[in-house]
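2 proteins. here.
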Amino acid sequence: MSKQTLVKLMFTFLLLLCLSNAFSQKRYDLSVKEAVELAFKNVTEVKNAELDYEIQNAQNKEITGQALPQVSGAGSINRYIKLPQVLFPSSEEGIYKVLKENGLVAPTTKAPPPTFTSFSFQQPWNTSIGASLSQLLFQPDVFVGLKARKTALNLSQANLELVKERVKDSAYRRYYAILIAQKQSDFLRGGIERLQKLYHDDSIMFVNGFAERLDLDKVQVQLTNLQTSQSVLDNSIKLAYAALKYSIGISQNDTVVLREGLTNEDIKRNALDAQFKYEDRKEIQAIGYSRRLQELDVKRYKMGYLPTLSAIGGYTISGMGQQFITNNNFIWFKSAVIGLNLNIPIFDGFQRRYKVQQAQFNLQKVDNGIENLKQVIDLQYTASKESLKNALLNLDAQQRNVQLAENVYQTTKKKFESGIGSSFEVLQADNDWQTAQSNYFTGLYNAIIAKISYQSALGKLD
């Protein structure tokens, strides 16, 4: 193979590889709600919770099946290689007794010892086929299980909603963290552009003897710091996008574009208007269903003292003969049976009593868990509400501070451009503006996270 041919093959391979990657990548333009819906479809934890719901649904149908008629069939065909034998005794004792009574033989005459003759009640070919039916009329644990079906399904649904709440919370936090980081990145770029212009203006003044080298160096230090911060922030945004992709269950090769904005008004809108109710929390709903199931478990063991009753029926066809069943001389028999089976528990060594006690203790543990959960929810609600109040106050203060720092910068810049101020004053005002803006973005992030935490505490994260 020539070198030119090898190069062509390598180029073709790389081109196909690039095209394959291009077609495999997807682009998602997402609002925060669309990101959450995408997570519900893709995240493994949600998928498994949905499968748990389907498993419970199948188990419910299995329990229902226990209360339906049970029908089974059986058949067999046998060929005896050697027929089973039974022994039948043969004795002349009775004959000799009669002869003695009639004087036909001497009284001392003894009868011959008995003999045994073997024969079989079976035929070489034997077959049977039949069906049996049973219908449960009353069995305590089955009927309690039938009552528990809906509650168990509701518990699986509540657990699914719990998983979705966690996934939604994660998606919200990561989505808004990226939005804020991007806003901060845009501001840093504006700061870099301002310092680059200031450096350019100072360079001209330095050449003309109106500025010192020290002025240039100060601007360069600040510019380098901003460029470094920009690089670190851009890398953090890439990592944040990777985390978001993972949290919504899409490939790292896919592209995500966030098409939703975030302002102070968005955070403040209806921030503290919602009413608190325990029933809105999915955890309370789930543990409520768990308590109901535990109550049914107590009932199941208590009803274990009751008898069980079932109806049975069967029909069998059997046959035997010297030759295979297709022979006309094969003899057939039919039989049928119906009846009731009753099982009455009398004494089990007090096992059921202690099973009832265990179930009651478990019910008390669930009640204790409910009280503890309410205390945890109270703490979450109080802490998140106060955090949100403080975050909103701080956000307002930081927003005012940013506006003030910007005004100072603009005034200082005009004085510098008019020749009555120094570049150092501009640099210092710009640095103060950068600091105020950084504090504002931190406050913005804390405010949105506090709002998400507060809505989660309410059970109303939309």
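next one coming up
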Amino acid sequence: MPKQTSSRTAITSAISGLVLGAALLTQPIAAVAGSVVTLWHTEPNPKTVGVMKEIIADYEKLNPGVKVNQEPIPWGDLDQKMQAALAAGAPPDASHGQAYVERSLSAKGLLLPIDEVVESIGADDIWDVVKKLNYHDVGQGDHYYGLAHAIGTDVHIIRKDYYRKAGISVTEPPKTWDEWLAQLKKLTVDTNGDGKIDVYGLGLAGPGFFINEEVYMWVGSNGGRLFDPNGRPTLTEKPVIEMLEFFKEVSDCCLAPDWLSHGYLDTFAMLATGKVASILGWGRGTGYFEKYAPDVVANRDIGVMPGKPVGPSGKAFLTQLDCEPWMIFKDGKNPQGAIDFLKFFYQPDNYRKYIQTVPIHFFPIRKSVQKDPKYLATPDLGTWKFWVDAQKNIIGNHDPKPLFITEWDDLDLPFVQEVASSGIMVEMVTDVVEGRLSAADSAAKAQKRTEKLITQLGYKKW
């Protein structure tokens, strides 16, 4: 999700879901009367905030004198706020962040283990991919330093009516970038004969966070990675240069001329209103389609592809795994209170109600909740079952990875957070698509800048 700041120390995370639902426990969770728990999240949509208020109210009833404050923060504001809080030594008690942010902060000793929360759930009830992300050693043995609030995947979303009109399959994704580019060109059309393009083949979000998404997914789909095993950037290697050349081709032929100014929700609006034939995005967009394009939804003309194309140097596609973990800050005013609250949050009824606020984007990390009849009866899971099935297939069979992670061991690199938030990758792309530099020259420039940044941070090991 969304955003990029230019500061090297910015926290490129976004806190995605928060505590919600309502269900009473038979035994209160231990909490200190008179204490305050501060939680940050980036789920300001009214439905999620409303459920969150319910679960907070239930928790406070069970723990008289305890106050839980939740602060919904827009994606575009979280990084600066988190950066300032950490610099001042005054972080919240709990927050969400990208997987690489959790690894970076835990390695710096800023987070507390949350093994208690996992134990309250039961490790066997948690999806293996979630445990793989958050269970690791920062010098004190293996512990959980985060726990995903939910998981989901980025998918290729299409207007099936436009695809059918162009004679393109609505069920079989293109296998290669060349095939995809040919399809996007067919989908980019002047519909009224006035000499101007009315529908573009693809819509992408331009703010830096989203360009970071495309960079790592497309490099990974082209058989490349962003760092070698020693942590040295690999930006001058063939897979990256081919990615930049492909980005330029797509931008020139099949993206709106002003795509760099489009926000994430803009791309959903463009697909809903027929200004683009496809986008890359997440399941939370289903509500947007239902609100702004009910006829398109009723006609079942929104679809998702079960996979993505592979570049000329690649063998398998890479897509993003959304898996932002809850993190507990050691320097928060009440970190133990936050741990107690998360135990309550993850209890089945509370957690199910939270998941149901964004049910196509949020997959439960608890296996038992995935099988819960009340969860399975969620109305959206009927309407959008094909979307859910596509994500489950990707998670189960195609090894999606977190933002900026092309290989799982990249999570152990201590500088990924700083590189991701530096703006270097964004400038590498925009220099090419706007014609300032060739792919090779832009990659060389980015390589130098990234090597310099890692060296300045004290992490150079090559």
